[in-house]
């Protein structure tokens, strides 16, 4: 019975491994998630136009964190950016063909735009700008925070909706790779509703670019793993060894930080100076920047309780506005969440098994860098379903994402097992039986 179940689990595991690569290209828990870039021409200027460009994040839980987005494109002809507000290009490029005082903001064929920082003078701001390129996810925060805008005046461009050329080859970095953008497509002109809601104006012309995320493109190695424990088992199931890389002192000495080193402060601050975005992790067998621990804590008559702990092992990252997405069939009957916010995500209308958990503002929405403060925790109380049982690892999640990235789970045959239900527990009994037989 136990054996049979385990081989089924193994089969399931092999199957999920086999399908993993094909699933990765899109996100099963947010199948329509996308970032849409709206390019709204507000006025024609005689030798070009003024446009407001808005990057809207329609992903439920994947946000763009510091140091923020970078947007690039290639002009179709010899367009130049005369002025900008609410954003800037990283390089001006060669504007030597212009003279006098009206030197363009950017003459590059393939400009790269970044957001301005908070505290930018008012005369350089526009609505929804200047948050250092940080864009919140769609489900976590008010919609205004899930978009970012800048304004640009383009010269040497078409001056009507039939002569203007759409820019090509959009690239979105957030801040690293991961997004793929489609071509710009002409869309219905955007309508802007006045603040009192009594009048709508509309863009002269609008085009849209859709960008989608793939974890596979974003990074070859995972950044998060799951460990497990349960009140009914004395074992703690750690994150899989080498889940995010292996500790290798020979080929890469100092690839991680020893938390017991007496010089830890010095080591960390020296390594941080190398202004690098790569994680600088604590030395562990799994080497992940983030670990999510799921502990099945208590069993009541009608309820059961789980404790979730998120630990940060990265010395180079404070996570603001972090979120966790968990898939478990009992989220249908979640009764209470302590000290995290909860939102039900229903990727498919009939299934309500996926939840987004995120921090409470000013309390635990900030996950501090590795160290004594680098963790947040919460407890979840579920009402048992009729078919409830702790058997077969049922109490553990099917899928866990941290900030939208898939966390590596222990293999199903390693899940904490109920006493007397698993092969491992049966072995001693078998051994005793066999030795009894032989001693007869
Ligand atoms: C982007 O996602 C939103 C929200 O899911 C959806 O309404 C919209 O149609 C999507 N856009 C495109 C171009 O697919
Ligand atoms: C261009 O503008 C004309 C009216 O000025 C309108 O009829 C036409 O649909 C517009 N075309 C596009 C592609 O927006
Ligand atoms: C598009 O952009 C990428 C990266 O910036 C570049 O490698 C590629 O050559 C560009 N393609 C075109 C057609 O401009
Ligand atoms: C690598 O270094 C860590 C900490 O310094 C140590 O615990 C570990 O045993 C070392 N691993 C190997 C393979 O030498
Ligand atoms: C994280 O925040 C703490 C406290 O605000 C700060 O001391 C530390 O330098 C920050 N670390 C990083 C990597 O930004
Ligand atoms: C999913 O279940 C939760 C908890 O019972 C409930 O609050 C939420 O409204 C449900 N969502 C949907 C879409 O049914
Ligand atoms: C659990 O949730 C489902 C779907 O919302 C509902 O049909 C069922 O009655 C609930 N079970 C309990 C024990 O509350």
TrEMBL record:
Q: Which residues form the COBRA C-terminal domain?
A: 223-416
Keyword annotations for this protein, in alphabetical order, are: Glycoprotein, GPI-anchor, Lipoprotein, Membrane, Signal
User: In which family does this protein belong, per the annotation?
Assistant: Belongs to the COBRA family.
Q: Does the keyword Lipoprotein apply?
A: yes
Specify the signal sequence span. Answer: 1-25
What protein name does the entry list? Answer: COBRA-like protein
Q: Which domain of life is it from?
A: Eukaryota
Instruction: Pull one GO CC term from this UniProt entry.
Output: plasma membrane
| Localization (cell) | Cell membrane
Q: Which Pfam families match?
A: COB_C, COBRA
Q: Which GO terms of type biological process are on file?
A: cellulose microfibril organization; plant-type cell wall cellulose biosynthetic process
Main localization of the protein described in the UniProt heading: membrane
InterPro entries assigned to the protein according to its UniProt record, in alphabetical order:
COB_C, COBRA_pln
Q: How is it placed in the membrane, per its record? A: Lipid-anchor; GPI-anchor
| Annotated organism of origin | Erythranthe guttata
Q: Does the keyword Glycoprotein apply?
A: yes
